[in-house]
Structure formats: structure tokens, C-alpha cells
Amino acid sequence: MDEKRQAGTSLASVGEFGLIGRLAQAWQGAAPCGIAHGNLGGLSPVIPPEGLRLGIGDDAAVIDVPGGKPLLVTTDMLVEGVHFLWSPERRRLLGRKALAVNISDIAAMGGVPAWAFLSIGVPAGANVEEVEELYAGMGEMAARFGVALAGGDTVRSDKWVINVTLLGLATKAPIGRSGGRPGDLILVTGTVGDSAAGLHLLLSEESMMAAGKGASESNEAHISEADRQALLLRHLDPTPRVAEAMALVVHGGVTAMMDVSDGVSSEVHHLCRNAGCGARIDLANLPISPAARRLARREGREVFAWALSGGEDYELIFTAPEERVPGLIDHVRRETGTDVTVIGRLTDGAAGIMAVYPAEKGGEAVPLAAKGYNHFR
Amino acid sequence: MDEKRQAGTSLASVGEFGLIGRLAQAWQGAAPCGIAHGNLGGLSPVIPPEGLRLGIGDDAAVIDVPGGKPLLVTTDMLVEGVHFLWSPERRRLLGRKALAVNISDIAAMGGVPAWAFLSIGVPAGANVEEVEELYAGMGEMAARFGVALAGGDTVRSDKWVINVTLLGLATKAPIGRSGGRPGDLILVTGTVGDSAAGLHLLLSEESMMAAGKGASESNEAHISEADRQALLLRHLDPTPRVAEAMALVVHGGVTAMMDVSDGVSSEVHHLCRNAGCGARIDLANLPISPAARRLARREGREVFAWALSGGEDYELIFTAPEERVPGLIDHVRRETGTDVTVIGRLTDGAAGIMAVYPAEKGGEAVPLAAKGYNHFR
């Protein structure tokens, strides 16, 4: 066995974001001075590495193609048993979601998705129809948002692995995470926490099934079928907010934007860290669906936890100066039918990142933990 | 268990290329008419899907960014246990090679590599230093060819998984696989078969080790250390032919080009299929290194098999009209020091794809089997 493995630094001790930072350094350490012209046979290369306007650490990279519009690129890897279970009923939904989460990243930069590259690892015992169902699901999502399948790789592996790289183009200037300023309001599209509620339902139904009881015998039987379906679909079949992002870009005034993939808490921390700001989030203002509230009440769960830390809502969270906010909210609702809600405000960095409880829960302001989903803890 | 799995079409029965075709159809079947404008909130999208000039089936996709140079994109997934073993001595080399094979794809289109996106699946028990070594290897290769790390994803998985998506820019017009015409000569850079010879050495040394004998007791002890190192490095640390590709592009006259990743046989079949041509390959002319010849002789192996079917040489194979060939060969040698060899000629499609044995082996012409490496057979 590999003894060095025991002696080294555990992934859990540095966490996902710590790891990313160290890896960028490992790469950089080996890359002293850009292009080695000697290796190009004396020909000077066409593109300077400066084409990379925005690299690691946002929803998508921004590349300035000489003479062209800024290119947006995002990539995501999904592994069976870690990110999904490979079940016959859900292959098509899995395909849809695998592309949707990448489309969401492009939208969160203010861009339009365009070209997808798919690498999939397929177990030797799988059959062609299984892979086709996955692709058909991706194709449905692609058709809805005008994405072309442009390339990929198909390899053998023990477990299913899906890697999507999606390219898009910025419509106007790409919107990063770092443009927020103290005083800007923080807004979110749609509702947050539904995906976590749906996951909760899914897991409890599955454990009921495993215990030999039908879903109808579980606690969830007390939830209306409409609530159940709505919450499950928010988790299994999220809709990327491309139309809302376009409406925001066209209206103008957005200073920073991300999608809610890890949870509102985690995303607020990103927006603050990148801008050197603090924040106050009013928990009473979090847009939480009646269905999620009902489920939380019946399960004895804290609905704020789902909204703040659940993640995978794929809503847009963004900041804008206060005077632009009413117009933005109106414009998005008119163009897309989607509600946009003010959930807080960026503050001076020294004020920290605080969550304010609703008056009926005491109205206390407490530090907001950045407990989004972290793959290595 | 999943009963449909038994009833479906096995991957082995369609093969890797058959699967790719069916998947493209599954995707297309779901994508009736490009962009659904309704989903973009009434805003017409910035890019038409027609930007995709060349999709699945070449070394890299070609995308026409509005106003910009053609973008080249390639992606490759490597899985532990299928494509590599995760050993402490070879992590850095693995990182180098994972990037090198993608750089080779960009070079094979006549482009310059630029921006890399890395997704890696990391086992829970791994430590940070292991991942850093992998990245450091990639960084070395990146520095050599001016590639910037532009983004990626880091996830947990059972086995190590490495997915590289590499973007580059075409220098002049991208060079695809379909431009060859009957009468064009077929040429290859450097030598072919060394990587397969290196893999043979590696596997026999490893089986010796497993049997408790040192490498020095094995047959390979009869090979000079210089030969051994040269062949192992061709397999473990390939150099993408970026400089040679640039020299070819600058000189002009190349009608079709690929890299030799699956083996000369397989690549010749690709060049012929895409152009509707046949081919005659003169086995006597295959550029095979003295080291590979010596190893084949001592091992009682057919050196042509390594050259034709071994793959992973990452040389360039290309076609050009006969009158341009002397100038091309001279130019590449002068600019890069690399030899280029004529190995055959494209013929009329009806003539088939034939291999001609050397005179001392009878001079017979036999159909050339397309037995490159295929992941699912």
C-alpha cells in the first residue's frame, strides 16, 4: 500500500476550496513564464495567455477570444454513488440535470449557453439503451436552451461518471462575483430551499421503501401530492434561470451574480469575500415556498436550514444598487413571470456576515455560517 | 438489480464508434429546432447554433466565435484502472500525459493550445500532496506549451478520474480529417510503435516484479538501458507535436491531419472514411525506431503490429498532394528537427485500404485491419 498517503495532508483538513487554491499553486509553480516559444518551432503563438480574463473561482471562466465576444466556460463532474444513484427511472432526469446545472453556471455569468462537451465513464456491464436515455435527457434540456452537442469522450469505468463542459457567450459584459459594493441590496430569484426539501422527501421515501413500507405509509403521505411532486421536481429536474439572467442583463444594474448551487449562506460568503464586504441577511425575507414550509413544519425541521444550506436550487443570487432594484424586479417579472426578492444588503467588511432572525423568533443577529455543501468534509 | 440491463444492447456489440453515433442521435432526437426563444424571455439569443462548424468525430470541435478566430475544443476522460494505475512514482508523469494527449488533439487540427479545464475525481482516502503532484505534472506540460489553467471541478469518487477539456485557437483554417484526395501522399512525423513497445516493457517488468524477480532478471535486462528509457518515456511521457503542426500549417499544403492516438491503422481508416478514399500503406516505409526494432526482435514480436495497432504515439499523420511533399518535409525538419516520412498514398475508394508487405516478406498487399484501441471491445 501507499505509505505516503497516510503521512500527507488529508483532503478533509483543507476542504474543497482550500484544495482548489493549493492546486492552482501547484500548477502555477511549474509554469514560470507563459509560452516557451522554442517549442513552437520559432513561430510566435496566436494567442497570449492574457486572453483568460477570469479563471478559477467563479461560475464560469471568461476568455477573450481575439476579435470575438467573451467566451464563458464551465465544467462539472458527477460521479455515481457520490452525486447520483443510477436508477432506471431517473436516467433521463439525470441527463437533464447534468446539463441544467452547467447551463445555470453560464446564466449566472450573464451569458447564453451554446456548446456542450460530454465525457462519460460507462461500466462494462451497461447497455447502449441506458446511455441513450441519459443522452436523450440531456438532449431535451439542450433543445430547450439552444445548446448543441459539440464533442466528448466515452470511456469505460467502474462507476458511471458524467463530465459536462459547457461553453457559452456573454451577452454584454460577463457578471462575476466580485462587483458588489457596501449598500447594494442582495436579491434572489424564485424560491430557495425547495431542492433540499425535495431531497429530504426522496431520502425518507427511499428509507421507507428499504424498510418494506410504501411511500403511502410514510410521514410524507400527509403531504399533498402536488406539494410532493413540486418539491421532488425542484431537486430532480431544476430549471436553469437563463431567461431571468437575460432579463437582468438587458435591464442592467446588476453588480455581481452567482447561481445558488451550494446554498444561500455559501453564496453570500462568496459574494462578500470577492468584494471585501460584509452582509446582513433578513431570514424573514427569504423566499420560501408554501410547500417547503408545510413539509418543514410536519417534519419538525428548520425551514431556514434548507434555504440557507440545502443548495441545488439553481436560482440566481445577485446584488444591485438600491435605486436600480425596483426596476429590476419589475422587468424580470414582466419578461419571465419570475419573482425576485430582496433578502438583505451588503455592508462594510468590518460588520461581518450576519443573519437576522425574524421578529417572532427574537430578531437576533447572528453570524451566518458558510455551510454550503462541501465535497471533502 | 436492473433487469433491463440484461435485455438491452451490449456496448461491446456496437463498439466505441457505434456508441458515439447512437448517442449523437439520442441527443438530436430530443432537439427539434434549435433555440426555444420562449425560454429566453422573448430575447433573441446572441449566438446561432450554426457557430459549430465541426462537431463530433474529429480531434477537436471547431467553433466560430462571432467575430473571432475559430475555437478548437477537445476533451478526454481518464479513469484509474482503465487508462492508468495510480502509483506514487508516476503521478507527475500522469499529469503531464493527461494534458499532453489533449494538446496533441489541438495540434492535430493545426491549432495552438490555450486554456485547460480540469475535472478530477479524488478518492476519499487520498491526500492533498497526491493531487498536487498530478497538478504539478500538468503544470509542467502547460508551461511548455503556454496553456493556462482556466477552471475545473474537484469531486469525490471511488477511483481517480481525470477529465481535461482543452481550448485552443486555429492558426489558419483548422485542418480536419476529411480533406484528403486520391493521389495524396500519407505522411507521419517521427516514429511509430515506440509507445506500444514501451507499454510492452512496462507490463513485462511489472509482471516480473509481481513474480518476485527484479527487472534485471527479466528478458528486458538484455536491452540497453538507453533503449529501455527511450521506449518507456515514449509511452509514459509523450510530447505533443505542436511545433511540427505549426510548421506544417505555416508551410501549407496539408489536406487532412490527425494525431496517432489509436494506431496508424485506425487513423488511416479514419482519413479514408472521411474522404471516401482507399489507401496503400507501405509497411517497409513505416518509421520505426531502432530501439523498437531491437526489442521486437528479442521478444519475438512483430514490430509492424506495434506500429500499426499500438497507438499512443501522438505523432501527426497527414495527407498532402505529392508536389507539396518535398517542401513540407524540408520545412518541418528545418523548423523542428523532426523527420517526416511518406508511408503510403490515398487511392480511389474502390481500391480498399491495403497494407503492402516489404519485399523480403513477400511483397504481398493485404487489407489493412482497423484494429486500433477500442474501449468497449
UniProtKB/TrEMBL annotation, chains A, B:
**What InterPro entries does the database record attribute to this sequence?**
PurM-like_C_dom, PurM-like_C_sf, PurM-like_N, PurM-like_N_sf, ThiL-like
UniProt-listed HAMAP family: TMP_kinase (MF_02128)
What is the name of this protein?
Thiamine-monophosphate kinase
Provide the family line: Belongs to the thiamine-monophosphate kinase family.
Q: Which NCBIfam families match?
A: thiL
Q: In which pathway does it act?
A: Cofactor biosynthesis; thiamine diphosphate biosynthesis; thiamine diphosphate from thiamine phosphate: step 1/1
**Positions of the PurM-like N-terminal domain:** 57-169
User: Which species does this protein come from?
Assistant: Heliomicrobium undosum
Additional info? Reaction mechanism of ThiL seems to utilize a direct, inline transfer of the gamma-phosphate of ATP to TMP rather than a phosphorylated enzyme intermediate.
Give start and end of each PurM-like C-terminal domain: 181-351
